[in-house]
Amino acid sequence: MMWSSCRSGAIGSGLCVFSRYRITDSFLYRYSLNGYPYKLHHGDWFGGKSVGLVILKVQGIIVHVYVTHLHAEYCREKDDYLPHRLLQSWELGQFIRHTGKTADVTILGGDLNMHPNDLGNRLLQCYTGMKDSFVETKKFEGSEGGCTLQAQNCYATVWDCPSFPSGIRIDYVLYKGSRGFPVKCDHLMTTSGTAPGKNIPYSDHEAVCATLSVQKDEGAATGAKREEETNPQLVDILNEARAEVKIGIHGAERIRYSSGRMAVLGFVLLLLEVVMAIIPLVTTTAENSFPKVSFYILGMVAFAVTLLAGILYVFHTIEVKMLQGTEDQMRNTIQALQEQLGE
Amino acid sequence: MMWSSCRSGAIGSGLCVFSRYRITDSFLYRYSLNGYPYKLHHGDWFGGKSVGLVILKVQGIIVHVYVTHLHAEYCREKDDYLPHRLLQSWELGQFIRHTGKTADVTILGGDLNMHPNDLGNRLLQCYTGMKDSFVETKKFEGSEGGCTLQAQNCYATVWDCPSFPSGIRIDYVLYKGSRGFPVKCDHLMTTSGTAPGKNIPYSDHEAVCATLSVQKDEGAATGAKREEETNPQLVDILNEARAEVKIGIHGAERIRYSSGRMAVLGFVLLLLEVVMAIIPLVTTTAENSFPKVSFYILGMVAFAVTLLAGILYVFHTIEVKMLQGTEDQMRNTIQALQEQLGE
User: Fold this and answer.
1) Interchain pair B32, A30: CB under 8 A
2) Quick one: three-class SS letters along chain B?
3) What is the pLDDT of residues A126-155, one digit of tens each?
4) Is the Cβ pair A328, B24 closer than 8 Å?
5) Can you give the pTM of this predicted structure?
6) Tell me, what's the ipTM?
7) pLDDT digits over A265-293, tens only?
8) Is A205 in the active site?
9) Do A28 and B325 touch (CB under 8 A)?
10) Most-buried pick from A70, A74, A82, B94 (CB within 10 A)?
């Protein structure tokens, strides 16, 4: 048994892979954005959410196993983290595409924190060409609809209980084969309810277990691993994603502006205080009539506001930059796809 | 002409690629560590240093062009950023290895902020199998020793002028071919001195211009792109790098400990103040004899110290985690290499 864990963030990314087969190589990519450090009650930022890759050789077949955990969705109606999760989906797809070109078999397992038809999920599957094992499996056993987040789980916080009484499917096993290595999902299973002999479940989510089979076809394995197929649907999905990322940019710019204004106000107040403190020292006629206690408190408050608002300004500037970069990349990809489709 | 720029950090990564040939795809990896945000006078942190990849198709040859800028070296004798730069070299090498498997030709250009024989440079070249165009070129024109950082440059801050009077070579063009696509460096050039007709140079560093030629050998192009050669030297270099990263971990743990202690002290002081403020309110006998001004100032200071030291604690915890993760990865790689060499 080999294992590979992924240290990241302040408390760790929570990703770990245990393997019966030798792990020949590994790599970690930390998402550019992952929530806000000041949202302590959500806490995703502190996890340093990432995607890990381990490369296995199983009976001569090169298998790339990706494992990830995307930012949680706390409120579906007003999802502040949608742009971050979309950026993560995009970076995840890019990471898989760029590192997975020589893989015979590609598998992604993880808590994507997205419903099956959510934009990020469609983007990921369409962009990478990976298939959802729940949709493809020949045989399924487990919870209704494959739901892995269930209200009856004592550790889970289902934010949208009323809308989804039977739970939500947010944990996935996606896969794709390549030329000469077609992959099928023979069996998919989720745990359900409490662990045997206990009155508590294994975890806050139900576990997902997929049995995949590879039919090695030596004859077809020569040449390019896989055709770079251009899916016309991808253009629409990317346009939709780009619109959402743009909304995210506006939101981030708004917070950046507020933080910047607050920092400037704090700084002006601080300057005023300094002037007020200096005047009685340099003149003999003027007298500082302002109460001392209030004066000092105001000074400290001004200092704290300037500093904290300044830090926030830098943080949200990074957020804006990262979202803009993602939007740039999406726009370039759309252009390239349209040119390919036009040819 | 196509171009691709890389938005990252608060002020941008400063990376940009202009290409005569169509850029078919691009990808960006931001390094896990990149200095400290509170070292404002160094400022590297705000750049969000990254490595960018653009994929070109030049006359049917797939060319991966990587572009990067690593953390600066401000003091060679006591280089606080060595562990960060080593981590960046390691991640750069991993990024090139994992994303470059299908490339016919791989090129890396960038300001590596490392001397030619520095550990990070040796690690990068040995791990990726890339060659230094300055060493390999048939013909060289330009500044003495290919030095790109020169004391006489009016924009440059050469921190180690006395030790390196003719300058330092810190900007590189590295390359490698693949089976069927051997690459040679025909010509290397650096700019030197001021721009023609002006009395200022083009930039703070001399520019590097490499002319590479690819001799396509169709016969040999079948099969694996390149043999996964195991360089026995790599084990020694990795051990050396691991030792440096470990020193970095100790350093980061020390600062984390100091920050944590400061945060706890600040918090205890804050609690004491709260108690002192409450006592006169609940008892009639006690009297608050502590001067009011000092009392409030102390409270504000305690609050600010707790908050800032807390933020520093989280930041340095992330630093420790990232360095530990790198050390883990290096150890695993050493193990895998030793097993391969043993076989």
Assistant:
1) yes
2) CEEEEECCCCCCCCEEEEECCCEEEEEEEECCCCCCCCCCCCCHHHHCCEEEEEEEEECCEEEEEEEEECCCCCCCCCCCCHHHHHHHHHHHHHHHHHHCCCCCEEEEEEECCCCCCCHHHHHHHHHHCCEEHHHHCCCEECCHHHCCECCCCCCCCCCCCCCCCCCECCEEEEEECECCECEEEEEEEECCCCCCCCCCCCCCCCCEEEEEEECCCHHHHCCCCCCCCCCHHHHHHHHHHHHHHHHHHHHHHHHHHHHHHHHHHHHHHHHHHHHHHHHHHHCCCCCCCCCHHHHHHHHHHHHHHHHHHHHHHHHHHHHHHHHHHHHHHHHHHHHHHHHHHHC
3) 999 999 999 999 999 999 899 999 888 888
4) no
5) 0.92
6) 0.90
7) 999 999 998 888 888 777 766 555 667 77
8) yes
9) yes
10) A70
